[in-house]
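FAQ: What does a ligand-bound record look like?

Like this one, built around heme C:
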Amino acid sequence: MPRWMRWIGYAAGTVVLLAGAGAGYVYAASNSKADKRYDIPATPIAISHDSATIARGQHFATAIGKCVDCHGEDLGGKVMVDDPALGVVVAPNLTPGGLLAGDSDAEVVRTIRHGVKRDGRSAAIMPSEEYQHFSDEDVGAIVAYLRSVPAVTRTLPATQLRPVGRALVAANVLPLYTAELVDHSATPPARVLPDSTIEYGKYLASTGGCIGCHGPGLSGGPIPGMPPDTPPAANITPEATGRLSDAELERMLREGTRPDGSTINPMMPWRYTALMTDLEMRATIKYLRSVPGKPYGNR
Ligand code: HEC
Ligand code: HEC
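The answer part, i.e. the structure of the complex:
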């Protein structure tokens, strides 16, 4: 299951929250977060729309950024959550048939890296805290790709929080609004050259969500906000993976199969890590081997 499942887990604590918080406060506090305006300029970056750039953008939207996990394989949008208590969360249509048609490239880049939509409000759930690290070149390639895909027309409901969802947001239990999690003052690199170095592996691990799910130290543990019945992220520091060969690690990332033959839960997005190039795989594995070993569960 994809990352967005995280927030559903908060439902358990909700009854308590609802009992303790006045409904009026909850409504006002969740609205103020949803309506908060971020004054982030949509700074234009050079984006080339040639076929090599589009191909790179496609790769980044699937194998690395995994946009398709939430926005649908055709990027035409999908309903991610529809819960009577929590609300409805929709990942919108990113094709030329959807919302972005009227946005400039710079506005789309701003949404991806800052989590700020065209009207200055925060996007919900969209993992910009990870995408803020994308280089100009890579985020530009993703935008070029979005402009090139076939237009999809799909009727989708509007995202809408219901009382329990509102209570969780108001209580700061549910980090729904991603613009809050982004360092808006950082200057992303213009370009990060693909190579087999540890540095490149770290770039892929941050833009690709490994750090988001397995923790900044990669030692795993329950993913913050995940429902209690979802598998915790595994320890992928050398303490746990040091005795595995590169081939065994690669097989886990390409086929979702552990050395003992068991299958890795699809909460781990191995369907998409499977699409990494050999170079990206080498860099990623090198990076995993470079971090300090840690016992499981220390994030
Ligand atoms: C974990 C799920 C998830 C992933 C992964 C994800 N998104 Fe999103 N995205 C969303 C949701 C949900 C919204 C709607 C946010 C809202 O309406 O507040 C959204 C909104 C957007 C928007 C803004 C649309 C608008 O309202 O104008 C853009 C652009 C976008 N995503 C692009 C991307 C790209 C590009 C990627 C991959 C690099 C990506 N997203 C990956 C969930 C996701
Ligand atoms: C959406 C959250 C998420 C993302 C993103 C993610 N993982 Fe995972 N990963 C998991 C979970 C959860 C498990 C445990 C699955 C299970 O218990 O079967 C896991 C398991 C693994 C395993 C298997 C470990 C073992 O010994 O069983 C490896 C290796 C791994 N992840 C590496 C990565 C790498 C490298 C990346 C980034 C390219 C990454 N993961 C991105 C959630 C994630």
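Follow-up question: can I read anything off the structure? Yes, for example: The pocket of heme C (ligand 2) is lined by residues 3, 205, 208-210, 212-214, 231, 233-234, 236, 249, 252-253, 258, 264-265, 267-269, 273, 284 (CB under 6 Å).
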